[in-house]
Amino acid sequence: MSYLPWLGAISLTFLLLERVFPWRKGQPLLRRGWVRDLGFLALNGRFFSPLIAVLNGAAAVAATQGLRALGLRLDVSPIAQWPLAAQLLAFLVLADFFQWCIHNLLHRVPWLWTFHKVHHSIDTMDWIGNWRFHWMEIVVYKTLQWLPLAWLNASSEAVFAVAVVTTLWGDFNHANLDVGLGPLGYLLNNPRMHLWHHDQSTEGGTAKNFGIVLSVWDHLFGTAYWPRERSPEQLGYPGMQEMPETFHGQVLWPLTRARRIREESAMVLQRAATWDDTVIAPKVPLTARHPTKPAPGSEPVPSSAVGKQ
Ligand SMILES: [Zn+2]
Ligand SMILES: [Zn+2]
User: Is the whole model's pTM more than 0.85, yes or no?
Assistant: First the structure.
């Protein structure tokens, strides 16, 4: 079964729904950056499909072998005999929980957050924004997601269906549609709730609403924030001016930044090991931390000159 027709049908559905039932009525179809996001749709939705398939296969084999070595792999899957709909539901819930965990990590681990910033540079929300994310996220999500599915011996049909449902729900979450799902919003993610995940302010915390399909994880684990009667003032992340506007700029930027973060982390560790406090906290002038009396007749050193290193 091919993913491409599903991708086309889902994209077209949300394109039309946003035209017929727009939430923010003044939002144009061809808003700033739509060509770049179309590029992300093509790259992440189409061109990465073969790579995803290869990665999935490799991750599945590795996960299966690893689990078997640990004695955790079941010879007979406990759900293999279930009807396809029940299998799909079980895989969806498990995979969604893993994605919720991984999404948490994307916000909490500095070098992963650098990649995830591409998605959070969204300042105008619509369905195609769902596709603005760095390909490294596919590697992280898909590889880790395979672990529980391998353990349950997922059928290829059920795995494919989970991929389609996740695509559908991702586009839905980002769509310009005024949908909150009423009481079902405590169970399922939706455009109104996901808009708060993209909130630029610190209201309700800087990290909130990590759900992909199910919002119940956020409600269970205390990461839900959703004032239902209003929307965030501004979308994005503080300091998002650092993010290049162009497609290739956004694809390349996290790669260079992540390397710098790794190098800086290594430098800090090295300095900590040598106990060289002049470089661990260079922003505090040395004169302020270790005041010494100037020698008689000598010029005092301006603190600003010491601070600049
Ligand atoms: Zn996020
Ligand atoms: Zn999003």
Answer: no
